[in-house]
Design brief:
Chain A is of the alpha/beta class and about 150 residues long. Chain A is built from 3 helices and 7 strands. The longest helix of chain A is centred in the last third of the chain and has 35 residues. In chain B, a hairpin with a 4-residue loop joins strand 5 and strand 6. The chains are: A alpha/beta (about 150), B alpha/beta (about 220).
C-alpha cells in the first residue's frame, strides 16, 4: 500500500489592479490530511517518493494524490464579503500487476465571511474548511470503494 | 475653549445612546422531555444552503448555554464535528430533521450518539446584517492638533432562529428565535465617540435564554 504526496506553495498573480498578490504556504497541510485519512483506513501505509522503485509485491495499491486545481475568490474579486476556496485533487489508484486502475476527482469547498476577522484569518479559515471538505469527500469515496480496493490487495 | 468642547462632547454622549429593539418567539410542536445528564449539541445550518451564521455567534451561544445551566451536557460544536467527521461537515450534514434516519442507518453514528447521550440537535440559522447607513464624518490634522467633526449612524439587524431536532423521533419539536434591531451612532466633536448597538451579542443572549426557557 503506497502513496505519493506533495508539498505545495501557491503564489497568485495580480488579477485586479487593486488586488495585492497572495502567497500561501500550505507546507504539509495537504499531506497531513491524506495521511490521517489513509492511516484510518489501512495499517501502516508506506510513503513513496515519486522517483521510488515499484514494489516487488502484488498485494498493494499505489495511491497517487495530485492537487489539480486551487482557486480562490476574495471579497473584492467576487463583490461580496467572503473568501471562497475551491480545491480539486486527482487521485489515481493503480496496481499494474492486477490491471487495476481508478481515477477519482475529489473536490473541496470552503467559504468564510470576513465579518470581524482580518483578511488573512478569513482566508485561512476558508482554506481549512475546503481541506476538511476534501477530507470528508475523500473519506466517503474510500468507504464506497473499499470492497473493490480490498479485493485487489488481498 | 477646549474644555467647553470636551463638556459638549460628554453631554452629547449622555444624550445620545444607542437604541435597540429585541423580539423573541417560541413555538412548541410536540411534547418532549430532557432528562438530566442527556446531551445537546448546537450546529449551524450549512453555507451551502445560503446560511451565514457567524463563527463568533456560535461561540457565544456555546459559551452562554454552558455557563447558564447544569441540567444538560452541552457538547461543543467543534468537538462534535470532529467526533463525527465526516458526517456533519457543511456538505455532508443533514439539512433538516427528516434526513436524520438516513444518518442513523450508519452504526458508527448511532453508537456514538448513544455513547454521548445526545438527545437533541439545535440547528441555528440567521445572521447579522447592516440595513442602512448615513451621515458623514471628517477628520483633519494640522501643526496645532487635529480632530473630527460630523455624525454617522447605521442600522443593524441580528436575526437568528433555533430549530430543535429530536434525534429519536427524527422530527422538529420546536423553534425559538431572537431578532434584535439597533442603531449605532458616531458623533464627533473633535473626538469621535462610537456608541454601538451590540445587536449580535444581544441576539446571542436572547436566543440562549430562549433555548434554556424551551428546555426548562
Amino acid at each position: 500500500m503506497m502513496k505519493t504526496l506533495l508539498t505545495i506553495v501557491f503564489k497568485s498573480t495580480n488579477i485586479e489592479k487593486n488586488e495585492s498578490p497572495w502567497m500561501i504556504e500550505f507546507n504539509d497541510s495537504h499531506k497531513k490530511l491524506f495521511d490521517k485519512i489513509l492511516n484510518g483506513f489501512f495499517n501502516d501505509p508506506i510513503q513513496m517518493e515519486t522517483s521510488s522503485e515499484p514494489l516487488n509485491d502484488n498485494n498493494y495499491i499505489v495511491i497517487n494524490i495530485k492537487l489539480d486545481k486551487f482557486e480562490f475568490l476574495t471579497p473584492s474579486l467576487a463583490s461580496n464579503d467572503k473568501y471562497s476556496v475551491w480545491l480539486k485533487y486527482n487521485i489515481l489508484l493503480t496496481n499494474p500487476e492486477r490491471e487495476y486502475s481508478k481515477s477519482w476527482d475529489i473536490t473541496g469547498y470552503g467559504e468564510q465571511e470576513t465579518a470581524s476577522l482580518n483578511q488573512n484569518q478569513a482566508l485561512i479559515n476558508a482554506i481549512d474548511l475546503a481541506l476538511r471538505d476534501t477530507g470528508a469527500n475523500f473519506t466517503i469515496k474510500m468507504e464506497e470503494e473499499m470492497e473493490s480496493i480490498i479485493s485487489v490487495i488481498e | 475653549m477646549h474644555r467647553n468642547i470636551l463638556l459638549s462632547s460628554l453631554l452629547l454622549m449622555t444624550l445620545i445612546t444607542s437604541c435597540s429593539t429585541t423580539r423573541v418567539d417560541e413555538e412548541v410542536n410536540l411534547p418532549f422531555q430532557l432528562i438530566e445528564g442527556q446531551s445537546i449539541v448546537v450546529l449551524s445550518d450549512s453555507y451551502h444552503t445560503g446560511n451565514k451564521t457567524e463563527i463568533d455567534f456560535m461561540d457565544c451561544l456555546n459559551k452562554n448555554l454552558k455557563r447558564k445551566q447544569n441540567k444538560f451536557n452541552l457538547i461543543p460544536t467543534n468537538q462534535f464535528k470532529n467526533d463525527f467527521y465526516p458526517w456533519f461537515e457543511p456538505s455532508t450534514a443533514p439539512q433538516n430533521a427528516e434526513q436524520l434516519p438516513k444518518f442513523f442507518k450508519r452504526e458508527i453514528i448511532k453508537n456514538k450518539l448513544e455513547k454521548l447521550k445526545i438527545k437533541y440537535i439545535i440547528n441555528i440559522t440567521g445572521e447579522t446584517t447592516t440595513n442602512s447607513s448615513s451621515g458623514a464624518l471628517s477628520c483633519a490634522a494640522g501643526p496645532g492638533g487635529g480632530g473630527c467633526f460630523g455624525f454617522a449612524w447605521w442600522d443593524d439587524t441580528s436575526s437568528y432562529s433555533a430549530s430543535v431536532w429530536d434525534l429519536n423521533e427524527a422530527t422538529v419539536i420546536g423553534n425559538v428565535s431572537a431578532s434584535v434591531t439597533g442603531t449605532s451612532v458616531i458623533p464627533a466633536i473633535v473626538i469621535p465617540i462610537p456608541i454601538l448597538a451590540r445587536t449580535q451579542s444581544n441576539a446571542c443572549e436572547g436566543l440562549s435564554n430562549q433555548i434554556l426557557g424551551f428546555f426548562s
